[in-house]
Amino acid sequence: MLFLLDYLYTSVYAKSIPRNKISYIRSLNEEFIDYVFLGSSRVHNTIDSDVIESITGKKVINLGIQGAKIDDYLLMLKLLNNQKIKVKTVFIQIDYVFNNEGTSMISKSYLMPYIRDSLISSHIKERDLDYYKLKFIPFYRYLVYDYKLGFREFFNSIIGKKPKFNLENGYNPLFGSINTNLKSSLPDYIKKDNKIILEINKFAKELNIEVSYFMAPFCFNTANKDFSSKLKEKIPNLIDYSQLFLEDTYFFNCSHLNDKGAKEFSKRVAFDILKKNQNN
Amino acid sequence: MLFNSIPFLVFLPIVFCLYWLVLNNKLTGQNLLLLIASYVFYGWWDYRFLGLIVLSTLVDFVVGLLMNRFHKEKIRKRLLWLSLLFNLGLLGVFKYFNFFIESWVEAIKYFGFKSDVSSLNIILPVGISFYTFQTLSYTIDVYNKKIKPTFNLIDFAAFVSFFPQLVAGPIERASQLLPQFKIKRTFDFTVVKSGIHLIVWGLFQKMVIADSCATYTNAIFSNYENLNSLSLLMGGFYFAFQIYGDFAGYSNLAIGIARMFGFNLMINFNYPYFSRDVAEFWRRWHISLTTWFRDYVYIPLGGSRGSKQQQIRNVFIVFFVSGLWHGANWTFLIWGGLHALFFTPLLVLNLNKKNTTTIVTNKGLPNPKEIIQIVGTFSLVSFSWIFFRSKNLSESFKYINGLFTNFNFKIEYLSIERYNIELLLLISVFLIIEWVNRNNEHPISGKLSYIKMTGIILMILVFGVYSDHQNFIYFQF
């Protein structure tokens, strides 16, 4: 029963239309993308690629994944390279994730159907103590990651249901605001360093990809705002947008912009790219 | 140790093999093994609280022996009081101390006074409400001379701590369970098979129904202020099935596991959501606790004897105590009070014993009147669950206010990236399975049981919740 279910799920995920950003990258081949945005939901819900494309005239994709951590960004870069996708500049959203070197559950969920792919296999093997169970116990990976890969996703893949957002753009807007008087807090300490960032820089350099780090906006009532200056000491070329908007109307919650805020922010990023290109 | 965990998956076959292969026909050895296994099972969760079970066991064992030795009523009564004070004292300290202290401080603050009394950081030992009630039933029954005390400490200790039902029941009576430790148990494949069927069905109720509902319930109750009426309605509906699947699932697991060792535990749930009135609901929901309160609280208070006012008073006392038994929170008291309110009209009109048989035994579907009765009863019960699920009374009232004032019944996308009505199909399938099997102990029994069991296992694998599985709700009680 387990072998049969494993075979069925793996086959369906391999043959269905892409429904998440990992499977979307795997469906691409030998393309050129000018600007790739990597990050967590603070990119996924914040960077409207269409706005940046219309201003810069360049090809842009938002590859932010909800809950993603820095290690996931590195994997995304490796996957892009694996699919022979050339990238000019990668924009990496960084904030409190600097303090974390782990991988996210959601990103790992998306990898599971492809655990027999050599790149993904070696990535999981280096990071997950359950690697052998995930790879060799039939159907185990789909049970462990059932929230994202369970029957619901399996069924949606069979019927070819498109995801709620356009994968070619990658932007998933949030509408409205969950409440008034938004509040949030950044960490009051910063790690000495983050080895994954060094790896990302090294990997990008080998592929001749420019890396640009930025910090997306937080609402005005954010505690420990000086975290951005601490982060700038670690990443000198960091572009700090953390206090770009002072009004709560731009926010869905304190750490996520709503659609109105995301569009404004994307415009600002686009104009900064143009300015930088003109200076160069 | 959870029934739906890897350690238990290793633990159970080991104990089962030792029990039937090594210690077969050795009654004392089997009872000793069950006792050790039960202590390991409990200690796996928190070994520090094993001492409480041992102490409770010793006190009630000695009280039972002394009651047998002394025949003077005065001494026997004192011994009964000792047992009551000890067991209820344990509950009072571990479960209710902070509740009463905090309520006292709030009350005197209301009248403008200050209090320096502060609450303590007390951890609630898992299953304390269950095993204390079980041992209490022993001493009360010995006092009332309904049963004779046991002279075998191993048997008694195994009865108190019997691992299948130790942490969340069913709460067994000494008269029903204790004698089973004294008779020789022989391996019967048919009985073991029926135990396995119950285990599989219990896992389905827990992992497919309860845990799926929990994902939605948690998302809705944690963000109720921003959701529309339909989502709030679904929140109450899903919690009704979460708590049913969770607790009935646990009970079936417990009964099934006990059966694998040759023990018969009482049925704890009997298709309660097909009840036609609240009185029938309480004859089908958490039967072991309901009958406990009936026998040890309601009847000693006078029960159905005396005037209607006295009967209503007794009903309110039982439901308030039942609410308090569930937890030290005003929400549980209100939940109990609501059920007393729902029950009272039936009592006044002598309708509380009207529906004592299984609904629609001869035909497939209920008639319109029965449908209205079932839906009405379910709605009342689900409404009361809002108090049971809420963290505090303020949250309950805000939730209910949102439910009845928002009037927006659009399908809503929740923070868990699922639509609020998505689980309806799964719950409908569950209800159909239950309806078709309402005259059976569980749906896997009867003809084609292997095929039914394969189907249920397949459903557990495909629809079960693994990454976000929840603890059994009743462990906290």
Automatic annotation (TrEMBL), chain A:
**Organism expressing this protein natively:** Lutibacter flavus
Could you tell me what this protein is called? Answer: SGNH/GDSL hydrolase family protein
TrEMBL record, chain B:
> Where, per UniProt, does this protein localize?
Cell membrane
The way it spans or sits in the membrane comes to:
Multi-pass membrane protein
Q: Which residues form a coiled coil?
A: none
**Primary localization:** membrane
Q: Which GO MF terms does the UniProt record name?
A: acyltransferase activity
Question: Which GO terms of type biological process are on file?
Answer: alginic acid biosynthetic process
The reply to whether Transferase figures as a keyword in the UniProt entry is yes
Pfam families, sorted = MBOAT
**Keywords annotated in UniProt:** Acyltransferase, Cell membrane, Membrane, Transferase, Transmembrane, Transmembrane helix
Any Gene Ontology CC annotation: plasma membrane
- UniProt xrefs under InterPro entries: Ac/AlaTfrase_AlgI/DltB (IPR024194), AlgI (IPR028362), MB_O-acyltransferase (IPR051085), MBOAT_fam (IPR004299)
Regions crossing the membrane: 6-22, 51-67, 79-97, 117-140, 230-247, 253-274, 312-328, 371-388, 448-467
Q: Which family does it belong to?
A: Belongs to the membrane-bound acyltransferase family.
> Can you name this protein?
D-alanyl-lipoteichoic acid acyltransferase DltB, MBOAT superfamily
